[in-house]
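Q: Hi! First time asking for a complex rather than a single chain. Here are the components, and I think there are two in total. Is that enough to go on?
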Amino acid sequence: MTIELKNLVKTFGSFAALDGVDLKIEDGELLALLGPSGSGKTTLLRIIAGLDWPDSGGVWFDGENALARGAGERHVGFVFQHYALFRHMTVFENVAFGLRVQPRAIRKDEAAIRARVKELLDLVQLDWLANRYPSQLSGGQRQRIALARALAIAPRILLLDEPFGALDAKVRKELRRWLRTLHEEINVTSVFVTHDQEEALEVANRVVVMDKGKIEQIGTPNEVYDRPATAFVHSFIGESIVLPVNVSDGRVWVGDQALNIKPNGATPGPSQLFVRRHDMQVGPAGSGLRGSVRYVRTFGAIQRADIALAAGDGETLIEIDTPRDRELKQGDVVELQPTRFRIFSA
Amino acid sequence: MATEPQLIVTSTGDGVEIRPSGSWIAANVGVLERLATSVASRVEQAKSLRLDMGGVSELDTLGAWLLERLSRRGTAGGYQAEVFGVSENYAGLIDEVRHVNRHNPPPPAARNPVIARVEEVGRFVWGFGEEATVFLQMLGSLCVALFGIVRRPRSLRVTSLVYQLYRVGWQAIPIILLITFLIGAIIAQQGIFHFRKFGAESYVVDMVGILVLRELGVLIVAIMVAGRSGSAYTAELGSMKMREEIDALLTMGLDPVVVLILPRILALIAALPILTFIGSMAALYGGGLVAWFYGGMDPSVFIERLHDAVSVEHFEVGMIKAPFMALVIGIVACSEGLRVKGSAESLGRQTTTSVVKSIFLVIVLDGLFAVFFASIGM
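A: Yes, that's all I need. Here is the structure of the assembled complex.
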């Protein structure tokens, strides 16, 4: 099932939650909507599910107008951040609920419902919990049950709203990998919302980065990480060193020091230089960016150093990761050379 | 490090030169203020101003602002102050201060009190209209859900209905009995106490009978139910809304009005007349006991008089009102529950609103019924 969103606009009062969003989601894809809170990603998900309605724009499922249908008629499975399991029902009944309330014409008989629920609980590897109540489960188990419940009606689309947001880091990591394999198994078009970039980059086939109701970039995890389209994406995804620079005469200046890099066609004028921490290396003399080492820590094969740059007004402290083949010591004066970088005009 | 701030003023022709020195920082605020005001008048009278910052050893926003204010006095006098000798460390600060407070904020527009009052009234009416819309919306969707039940009776959630009936009906009986019994007793006691002066004790039976059956029985019960069950409905639906359970129902193709709200309101409509009946009987019983022990009226006499005083009409008036009050309480409680936003705060607020609003509406409705029954002569 493909989902097409055309020019979606949604405002709450004077706040634009979505400001002209166009997006095409391919069949069988696992897509992540990534952005800081308030970027409109949950609103977008709720509009796809039919729990909210856009002020203007269109939603098309396989070329069919979805806005003409209510939430119940879209055959969408929705997994909520806080599970939204029914507390007075057992795990089994929770999963069976969606099947039991289907219209009589398409409802399965009791034996078939039992078989289906059993199959789903096996899928989420929690069949031994069938007779427990949600309050007796851990957070990670609840979320897996919520997923089984969403999958019960064989949804055409699976939507997950910060599914792992309320779980602790270790469980989150486990579930991430699990979701990835589950998606390969069931292969339903899935969209999940997250503000955790690691989660998005690890799980999704494609990542949509949003900010202030607009899409900043759409791409595979690698594209988004290696070739960020905007300054926002670069600073939001992965850790970045950001330096105010000036581009003029085909050179890049930090204060009064010229860097040993080419501006790659960046427009002249005040700009920002973005470098990943591991792409900032200690270069030979003449590299341009001078600084003194303040503090060094080592982690296995790399050493992480705090370096105080003397350029510009005042001093700027940056953190870099370099291999240990050249040991740094506190107080060393080094020159830095960005190996990969991007320049966005300020 | 910190040195006493100083300000040396020298006249140069018709102008002045000011040479501040030392620490112009917030710690010395007392001295600085005095220094700055002491030269203010001289700056104003002068024709030019030179500000030599060379001697300043420390500067923060406060010091910079005091000096900037001095030089602005010059600008007000029609000439440009000349600032020099600023050390490189503080150039940024001076530059920043130079740009602040350039324009006074516009004074808050003085509002015409009449217009303000009119605006208030307008907003109130607008809010009232919104409330009415929410109420009617809920009534409408309830009717639609009810119509669906009539077409397919098996879609009624009987388990839920019975459970709600148990909660709002059966479980409410003890408290209703107690309260109405006490109310009946109090009315009878007050009646006997005051009527005795006129030797009209026997009319207490008429008063208790008519008052309880027509008005008090149903009103007290409705208020109790609004506080007890209405608030519970709001809190339940509100917390389901908060935990996104209502959204979960929607995505599974279920209408929350059918699944959650209809059984609750039907249970309330069924329970309230029953509770009203029980409550009225308890009140009469309480009144009878007080008449017997406090007023010395034999129970057989009490029953005899009650028989003469009240007619079935009085009883009907009370009972007819009950289901309508239940409907109002149910609709208010459920629609307030669905208006809960994400926070626990709003859950509490909405629950309070629900109780206050439903009690208010119950009393208003009672008044309307009084007018209605009077006009049809009941």
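A: Chain A has two domains: 3-231, 239-345. Let me know if you'd like any chain examined more closely.
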